[in-house]
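Trying the structure run again after the queue cleared.
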Amino acid sequence: MSSPTDFYSILWRDADEERAHGAERQPDCFPDLRLDQVVRSVLRDPADAELEACFWQPLQRVDAVAWRQATARELECEPLRSAVDAFCQRIRDMRDMQERARECDVAPARARWLLDAALAVAAACAALHDDLQRSAPTAPGLCALQAHLHRLVSSEGYRAWTQSARQIAADLEALRYTVQVDDAALTVRQYRGEPDYAAEIARVFARFSQIETHAEAPRAAGHKRIDHVQAAILERVALLFPDVFARLADFAAQHADMLDPSLRRFDREVRFYRAYQCLIAPLRDAGLAFDYPRLDAQDQRERASATFDLALACQRVASGERMVSNDLRLGTDERFIVITGPNNGGKTTFARTFGQLHYLARLGLPVPGQDVRLFLCDAIHTHFEREERADAAHGKLEDDLLRVRAILQQATPRSVVILNEMFSSTTADDALGLARRIMAQLAARKLIAVYVTFLTELAHFDAHTVSMVSTVADDDPTVRTFKLVRRAADGRSYAMTLAAKYGVTRARLLERIAP
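Done. Tokens:
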């Protein structure tokens, strides 16, 4: 493992840990848990698309999660948060300048874009170094970064190229020349004290200007391409001042890519944290709670207060709607949650929330809820209802059984299994018999599981089973509260009450079709 002063990463403690968690594709549970939607919301900036694979690599050890949580916590706090945001913005500017250089076919202009990119890197490194010195982070990954950056900016090589870049930029700014336009002829010559008409015009018309100007506008805000007149002028200026433009060309050739590889990695990884933190910021502002969970790889007791479905919350808060939260608890020897209750009452949403909590916790990120304690699982296996396809090779019941068999083959005592409304294509008796056999195999593994079902008999499967029920309003059974409580299943679906509300009872339908 790296020493505290050897910077490797702010996501992984060393290369071995990173290799052990490699993933080449999205986990199978993502669509069922709507984590694919969460990741798309996190990576709204096209520049962050490269971060997607970071969300496919959950951690397996409690100490690894704690190590990452320490970094995430500090990155939420000022002034470090603003410091890393400013660093990332400067690196974006650098990449923009490099892109402009690649697109530019005028050699002096291309070299100048690369010089500006180098100056952006120098400014980014110097500012981040000073900001880290002031903020004095304590997270191991950030401490190693601080030590690495201090060594970098103190090195002779770094000082030499930054000093060279600043000197060339100053020499270019000091150049003075005149441009004479005579019909179609363009003449560029060295400045010999002629009046500066551009400055005079600017002075005369300054009183009419209603636009606020800034002395140091970023070069990246300019046009990507220069036109043929500008190119002709620049090429002639380069001929007038060959020494400085030769040094500019040499610098650009030697320092086309000047960002330190470790800082390039830091820029990518810190955006993983900050993009997620930016996603949940408006949810926090709306009063929803987030917490860094306490994890245990042995103790299966769990709890979370005021937790919620993150994907749903992003949608509802953005549209100004109220978000309902729920509590969960698994006590000693409680491993199986069976959820029953009326349709559209929040059962599936709670199951998704349960899975999201465990997955996001393994990424070292804050999870929805407060006072959160979770078991650190090794994998999350899900089975949610899918629409039957006409071209499917198997019928729906056979497809359900094949998918469940795959889960049973993969699940370990450290897994979390989430089953949602299985066997709806068969009779209730057959569904109950199949469900009991599946629950027995899951119980034998002593893993944690959630089962959303219309089969209330499963709610008292064994002594390790907890029954949770989605509730309705006390004064109107047709109104779903989306709150789930721990209580015995009562088998009430309120279907007839709902049918009466919308006028689709048998009597009402007969009235409407009567001749």
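The two ends are 83 Å apart (CA to CA). Worth checking whether this holds up in the mutant runs.
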